[in-house]
Amino acid sequence: xxxxxxxxxxYIGSHTxxxxxxxxxxxxxxDNLCNSKSETVMKIMDIADKEVTFCEIDxxxxxxxxxxxxxxxVDGVIHFAGLKAVGESVDKPLDYYYNNIVSTLVLAxxxxxxxxxxxxxxxxxxVYGDDKVPFVETMDLLPTTNPYGETKAMSERILTDITNxxxxxxxxxxxxxxxxxxxxxxLIGETPNGIPNNLMPYVTQVAKxxxxxxxxxxxxxxxxxxxxxxxxxxxxxxxxxxxAALENLTEGVHIYNLxxxxxxxxxxxxxxxxxxxxxxxxxxxxxxxxxxxASCYADASKAKRELGWEANLDIISMCRDAWRFEKNYTDxxxxx
Length: 336
Ligand code: NAD
Ligand code: WQD
Fold this sequence. Notes:
Elements: E1 2-6, H1 11-22, E2 26-30, H2 39-48, E3 53-55, H3 62-71, E4 76-79, H4 86-91, H5 93-114, E5 118-124, H6 147-165, E6 170-176, E7 178-180, H7 199-208, E8 214-217, E9 229-230, E10 232-234, H8 235-247, E11 252-258, E12 264-265, H9 266-277, E13 283-286, E14 295-296, H10 301-307, H11 315-328
Parallel strand pairs: 1-2, 1-4, 2-3, 4-5, 5-6, 6-11, 7-10, 8-13, 9-14
Antiparallel strand pairs: 9-12
Helix pairs in contact: 1-2, 1-8, 3-5, 5-6, 7-11, 9-11
This protein binds nicotinamide-adenine-dinucleotide and UDP-4-deoxy-4-formamido-beta-L-arabinopyranose (WQD).
UDP-4-deoxy-4-formamido-beta-L-arabinopyranose (WQD) is lined by residues 84, 86, 124, 126, 178, 197-199, 202, 214-217, 228, 230, 266, 289, 292, 296.
């Protein structure tokens, strides 16, 4: 199939492009490079040893999207393009609602106009709010506490309504847990701007000496060791989950958790990182981070049952691959 991958130069999108190419599909990337670099497209082609088509466009631009659908035969869309920083979305709600909602509307409209019936959407476990773990797809969505989470819940709703009104349309809503790690080649991985907000990139930058020490946000949660528990999933497993979702798509709306089903605490992750890479990660315990929940992990059984997909790579592989990429990556972030 010819797959339009929006946000294909980004972290999860680039790994998914490789998985698609390896599975024999063709890829058209649409990305405005607002949070990525064109070099990543070259690296995708190097790793997969295949060509991709790259269109540097903003997917909120209906005319630019129309040109792609007019000029290329698109069989399906995987829509990654979006702004994703939770804290920033509180300061810039208009940017987040505009970018993340309008892009979904523009792409869905183009799909309708050109009779493209396969649509895979990047959602997030954040739509579950702070309900009881493990999170199951059938749970009611709770109001999220930030505009970013709202854009994911709203996009899910928009795509569901469109599908209900158009029985030929097929949509897969993929709720990711905590994607980490990098491609085994060390060529592509996560490259956050400035000081990272997320745990794994913070840990890799501490290990590299770019940052002095990890601040562990709270050790008084009701968890195995008091620190926050999350379902970390290797980005390569996550990428393969998209190929499975696309290839098994049938009419209607299908919601899948993409996680491992296993929870890992902050201190367990730090220990795994130190063991995997034989390197020390200094840390200090500080106050809880506002808005954090104690535990978040998936019931990942539906994806296994219906898509035949499950995550295979363990926390050690995630830590090893994240570190291999960080060691190779040359951008310098000042230590604070
Ligand atoms: P990323 O920022 O690395 O990738 C997003 C890509 O989309 C970037 O290359 C960016 O340049 C592009 N983009 C953004 N807005 C665009 C627009 N209007 N037009 C064209 N291109 C645009 O982020 P990621 O981590 O790869 O996340 C991909 C998707 O998965 C996002 O929708 C994100 O919300 C979702 N998600 C990410 C996580 C996570 O922890 N990384 C978790 C759950 C869901
Ligand atoms: C993980 C754990 C922190 C940094 C976020 C988004 C979510 C999704 C994935 C997009 C928590 C602790 C972290 C640090 C720490 N993104 N931590 N010190 O918050 O689970 O999820 O990314 O959809 O929407 O909210 O991920 O990596 O920030 O935190 O102690 O410097 O690590 O408290 O327990 P989170 P995270």
